[in-house]
């Protein structure tokens, strides 16, 4: 068993990159995807949660994962949370702090790392991925120092954005009904492999979406043929993933 464990959720690799950088620095650390539930066995020195901000709060998969996690043996561990965002932090940390409180644990440290904004369903992808990746790496350095030294910096408990968050997350789950697959699809199944929540089944060589989508946009962003689109909105919006994260990193969710 490792001394430390980090749970992550990531569609385009920003959060996975932060999680990997922290894991490398604190050493002796397991990295586990939050796409599926996990049973903690034993006591860890540090337990981390790293994920993107969705609609000013937690992705639905992260909320479900943390609610289901049994922290009984780890109430005294140093629990930290780092959310990655395109522009703000809002309620991502507040949400998770409340869930951990309800399990008699304590979120000792919460921080936001600003990254490239990846929601291609709403806007075109910027052409500044390398600049954003550098800024992300710079911000992660301070987070690493804090986590190495077990710094106590809990997030604020109040955030008004949380009021809007629930309906937004519900709406996202069925938003895959707006996905379409063009003739460019070569049946490679990459989309199905990168989906963190097994929402894509391959049928007759084409992806079928199962309507429990997180809208993480991994399938849209990693398709090598840019064959997956959201209505007619994303055809010319470009595609993005973190420059240091490979498809193999995404697919080997347990690294
Ligand atoms: C469905 C969705 C909702 C998002 N909502 C927000 C948001 O409310 N605020 C924000 O700053 N960024 C938002 N983003 C941007 C992501 O949080 C940001 O790009 C994040 O770093 C992506 O992480 P990943 O590469 O690990 O998936 C959203 C992205 C998606 C896909
Ligand atoms: S990743 Fe793209 S090309 Fe590959 S099966 Fe999915 S839609 Fe088709
Ligand atoms: S179907 Fe696509 S957008 Fe939805 S959860 Fe899976 S990879 Fe993410």
UniProtKB/TrEMBL annotation:
<dbReference type="Pfam" id="PF13237">
    <property type="entry name" value="Fer4_10"/>
</dbReference>
<keyword id="KW-0411">Iron-sulfur</keyword>
<keyword id="KW-0408">Iron</keyword>
<protein>
    <submittedName>
        <fullName>EFR1 family ferrodoxin</fullName>
    </submittedName>
</protein>
<dbReference type="InterPro" id="IPR047964">
    <property type="entry name" value="EFR1-like"/>
</dbReference>
<feature type="domain" description="4Fe-4S ferredoxin-type">
    <location>
        <begin position="206"/>
        <end position="233"/>
    </location>
</feature>
<dbReference type="InterPro" id="IPR017900">
    <property type="entry name" value="4Fe4S_Fe_S_CS"/>
</dbReference>
<keyword id="KW-0479">Metal-binding</keyword>
<dbReference type="InterPro" id="IPR029039">
    <property type="entry name" value="Flavoprotein-like_sf"/>
</dbReference>
<dbReference type="GO" id="GO:0051536">
    <property type="term" value="F:iron-sulfur cluster binding"/>
</dbReference>
<dbReference type="InterPro" id="IPR017896">
    <property type="entry name" value="4Fe4S_Fe-S-bd"/>
</dbReference>
<feature type="domain" description="4Fe-4S ferredoxin-type">
    <location>
        <begin position="175"/>
        <end position="205"/>
    </location>
</feature>
<dbReference type="InterPro" id="IPR026816">
    <property type="entry name" value="Flavodoxin_dom"/>
</dbReference>
<dbReference type="GO" id="GO:0046872">
    <property type="term" value="F:metal ion binding"/>
</dbReference>
<dbReference type="Pfam" id="PF12724">
    <property type="entry name" value="Flavodoxin_5"/>
</dbReference>
